[in-house]
Amino acid sequence: MLLSINKKKIYFYLFIFVFLNTIFNFKQMSKFSNIFKLNEISINGLNLDEEYSLRSDLELFKNQNIFLLNNNQMYSILDNIKHIETFKIKKIFPSELNIDIKKTSYVGKTMKNGRVYLIGNNKKFIEQKKINIQPNVPFVFGNFSIEELLILQNNLRSNSFNLDEIKNYYYFKSSRWDLNKEDNITIKLPFSNYEQSLKQYKILEDEGKIYKNSIVDLRVPKKIIISYK
Fold first, then answer.
1. Cα–Cα distances in Å, from 215 out to 15, 46, 155?
2. Separation of alpha carbons 179 and 166, rounded Å
3. The model's pTM
4. Can you tell me the distance from the alpha carbon of 121 to that of 135, in angstroms, rounded to the nearest whole number?
5. Is the peptide bond before 221 cis (omega within 30 degrees of 0)?
6. What CATH number is given for 40-103 in this structure?
7. Which tens digit of pLDDT belongs to each residue from 117-162?
8. Architecture of domain 138-228
9. Strands 96-103 and 115-120, sheet pairing
10. pLDDT tens profile 79-88
11. What is the dihedral of CA 222, 173, 109, 136, to 10 degrees?
């Protein structure tokens, strides 16, 4: 009988020990977990209004374990901000997040459904009134893709064109471009292989043979037709 009582006591004390040890470990784990709760988000590269808006979108990540953050969800939020070109997210342990943002540059503006959109170098259309800026960029007319515009501008740069001198781009259904430069000069490009035409134009311009109010038609292969407005 005494042996039985002693066993019961042993089991009882063992239970108490395990119970207290579990509570202690739980408290320690809880304390450890709290250390890694996200409580600070630093954002660099945006103005105050933009930063405030982004902070509101990222508020759902506050107090989450920094190791368990849903990165895909965070990337999606940043990708949906159309005037951002690149961003870098860095976790600073134990509880801080640092986001460095580079805003896109603007290569033009256009009209879509009665609204003015800026054309980002990040290949996105950004409604101008939503970001409230007025960049000095050329107007682009027609139903074009941003990719096509960027390819054209890269070809212009590679042929030493000053893009700041181009006031308007016109894109036609035949998949070709007209350019309207300063001094009221219009350049009509062919629908394909216009790189060679740009070189021919640049030679004439450098020789001083392109005058104000001229129309330079490069659509006919191996010919340059110049008329005046």
1. 96, 43, 20
2. 7
3. 0.82
4. 13
5. no
6. 3.10.20.310
7. 999 999 999 999 988 888 999 999 999 999 999 999 999 999 999 9
8. 3-Layer(aba) Sandwich (3.40)
9. unpaired
10. 999 999 999 9
11. 20
